[in-house]
Amino acid sequence: MRLRLVVSALTAMFFASGNYATAHHSFAMFDQDNQVDLEGVVQEFRFIAPHTFIILEVKQEDGTTEVWALEGVSPSALAREGWTRTSLRPGDEIKLRVAPLRSGVPGGAWVTQQIKFRDGKPVAANP
Amino acid sequence: MLDRSSLAGIVLLTAMTMAAQAHDESKYPNWRGQWSRSTGPAQWDPKKPAGLRQEPPLTSEYQAIWEANMASQASGGEGYNPQAFCLPSGMPRMMIAYEPLEIIVTAETTYVRVDHLSEFRRIYTDGRSWPDVVDPTYAGYSIGTWIDTDSDGRYDLLEVETRHLKGPRTFDASGIPMHKDSETVIKERIYLDKSNPDLLRDEVTTIDHALTRPWTVTRDYRRARDAVWYEHICAEENHHVVIGKESYFLSANGELMPTRKDQPPPDLRYFNRPRK
């Protein structure tokens, strides 16, 4: 499921000056002013440099599914937040906030502090 | 009986052991451990906000190049930023430490291993002078001098000069450019904070023909003494693709996706050509 958000200045600042400003490339391709909340099922969690990736299957309103490629921070940056390579597993149902690609195709960047399991449990605590 | 190659191996091992013993550890600072950027954001001058407020002392020609880079970025492009597709940052940008640094001090050479993009520096401290001919590299050729500033019998400052660089290089991901001639000279003063041995400082002065004057910034790194090191192979999971001046993004299955509205696909003129 995909919900459009009106993003607070605080969240936009997170992308502009928070941990996303630490990357080796710019994040201008991701629309930080029009973030979306996604709910879906993890197909794959790639805990690999230079950027971790969540491959997420998202159900559309018409019943079809769309697969999103979602870029996160590096493994070492995630590890500092308590994550491991098994924090997410295929089949996990999650909710997360995403700055989508400006082109409107299913890709984007996710915010480390705004991801949880569907039942509200924090992901970083997952062993 | 030992054969000739075994004997040569023993001789080499003995020589290496003697060299290691010649390195008197008590004379050098303890810079072991994992050093991570302490100030968070990755703009070149960590004390100023990213973007125009960095106020780099660029010539008008290079200011215009920088502004064009930022305009490209604003529309989702970053063809000016080769690090996005895994080319090395080079000096001085590699000292931003996007990922942690490891500093290995020996008497003859101090090595700086940079996890990000698997970059590596050799800083020669064996008293050599500049060679007549050096093949330019992204990291450059660095000569350092150890200094005992407080005369306590132990070095506490490493002064480094780096030359013989190649480009393209930028100061940071916003695309602050360095001159196309790559005649950059970088001077550094690297030392531990006097009151905090887990805080390392690098005062970096860049002299470049794109600048109207030398530009000095100080970057800080915090030490983790028992840290985990992650392998960082940029090509392994990099979804950023630059073709010509256009930036694209790879889907979960490796298909090319546009990054901005109405972006043209790459030029496919060489595909599906009839054989002559």
Describe the overall structure.
Chain A contains 2 helices and 6 strands, in the order βαβββαββ. With 127 residues, chain A is mostly beta strands. In chain A, strands 2-3-4-6-5 form a 5-stranded mixed beta barrel. Chain A is globular, with a radius of gyration of 14 Å. The two termini of chain A are 26 Å apart. Mean pLDDT of chain A is 83; it is low at 6-21. Chain B has a 9-stranded mixed beta sheet, with no helix packed on it. A 3-stranded antiparallel beta sheet of chain B has the order 10-11-12, with no helix packed on it. Chain B has one domain (25-234). Chain B is built from 2 helices and 12 strands. Chain B starts with a helix and ends in an 18-residue tail after the last strand. Chains A and B meet through β2, β4 and α2 of A and β11 of B.
Would you kindly provide a brief summary of this structure?
The complex is a heterodimer of chains A (127) and B (276). Chain A is mainly β.
Task: Identify the notable features of this structure and list them briefly.
heterodimer; A: mainly beta; OB fold (Dihydrolipoamide Acetyltransferase, E2P); five-stranded mixed β-barrel; 6 strands; globular; B: 276 residues; three-stranded antiparallel β-sheet; 28% strand
